[in-house]
Design brief:
Number of helices: 10
Shape: globular
């Protein structure tokens, strides 16, 4: 399509349709929804560009804003093509800091599949973001069963507008995601789209027995099965995951000066960085490195988390084994 053809809404709509189809093909090729191909229909139906009317791309010295109303048709095309890239998009930047984003679509697809959502399930999403993920959920199970919450009223208001423009009206709540949304409980699934530093206890109390919780933690994704209001347990997925932290609960991490003396290859190794983040404040980085070597560089799937009435802890291989670390 020639650039001048994008001057009108019809040209943009045609490009959006083709770009969305290409994104769906790319996600399919990644195998993200092999275990539940029904998610393909949701990604085919929900137009991502309606949820990112503008976003930011990194440039030297800061960010460049791309938006759908740009008078320059070339920049407008760049915005639209970027909206359908299989990449995360920075959607809110405040004082040079990223505070909200639209996640990478293929990672979103993997998370949705991992949730094991079935007809009739009530789902709570922690971190409304642009509303795109809530729209995918609503397309699959219906507006009435989807609740999404965010602390920032500007984010929830824009998410609500985006959802309405796409024809969806799930429940959008302004509030502290760590407290859940008790008035909408009980839930069959809780899905966080922001990085946590632990598992908030209120979530368990708002879950039905057997519910599933999926949340980013320590650059990974923890999948928990809830037994009752005081107990849950599960392992991390193999998939790396980097999300904006839950506001008010920044994730722990070792201070750079504490890594002195470690081999440079270790400090840059993605799986070792995961262990450092998971054990920050509980295990000296040098002891973490010794453990990592002794256990032959374990992947994320060997780690897990247990929540009980008394405590929350992370572990390697066995929740009652010798390698365990408390979480907040």
């Amino acid at each position: 399509m020639d650039t001048h053809d994008l001057a009108g809404p019809a040209g943009l709509a045609d490009l959006a349709t083709r770009a969305r189809a290409e994104l769906v093909r790319e996600i399919e090729a990644s195998g993200a929804w092999d275990a539940d191909p029904a998610w393909r229909e949701a990604f085919e139906a929900v137009p991502r560009h309606l949820f990112v009317p503008y976003y930011y791309v990194g440039v030297r010295g800061g960010f460049e804003r791309l938006w759908g109303e740009d008078p320059d048709c070339r920049r407008r095309e760049r915005w639209l093509r970027g909206a359908y890239a299989d990449a995360p998009l920075a959607t809110r930047v405040r004082d040079g800091e990223l505070i909200s984003s639209s996640s990478q679509p293929s990672l979103m697809a993997k998370m949705l599949v991992e949730m094991g959502i079935e007809e009739g399930h009530a789902v709570l999403e922690i971190g409304a973001g642009t509303g795109y993920n809530a729209a995918l959920l609503a397309h699959r199970i219906g507006d009435a069963l989807v609740t999404t919450v965010d602390l920032d009223s500007e984010i929830t208001e824009s998410a609500r507008r985006h959802l309405e423009s796409a024809g969806h009206r799930p429940t959008v709540v302004t509030g502290d995601g760590a407290r859940g949304v008790p008035e909408r409980a009980p839930f069959d699934r809780i899905m966080a789209t922001c990085t946590m530093n632990s598992v908030p206890r209120p979530w368990l109390a708002q879950c039905r027995p057997g519910a599933r919780i999926l949340a980013p933690l320590a650059t990974g994704l923890i999948a928990l099965r809830v037994t009752d209001a005081g107990h849950a347990e599960g392992r991390f997925l193999q998939t790396p995951a980097y999300f904006v932290p839950l506001r008010g609960a920044t994730g722990p991490g070792p201070e750079p000066q504490h890594l002195g003396g470690l081999p440079s290859g270790a400090t840059s190794h993605e799986r070792f960085r995961f262990l450092l983040t998971l054990t920050a404040g509980n295990l000296d980085p040098h002891d973490a490195y010794a453990l990592w070597q002794r256990e032959e560089e374990p992947g994320r799937e060997r780690y897990g988390i247990t929540v009980s009435d008394e405590r929350v802890w992370a572990w390697l291989d066995d929740p009652e084994g010798p390698y365990a670390w408390p979480l907040p």
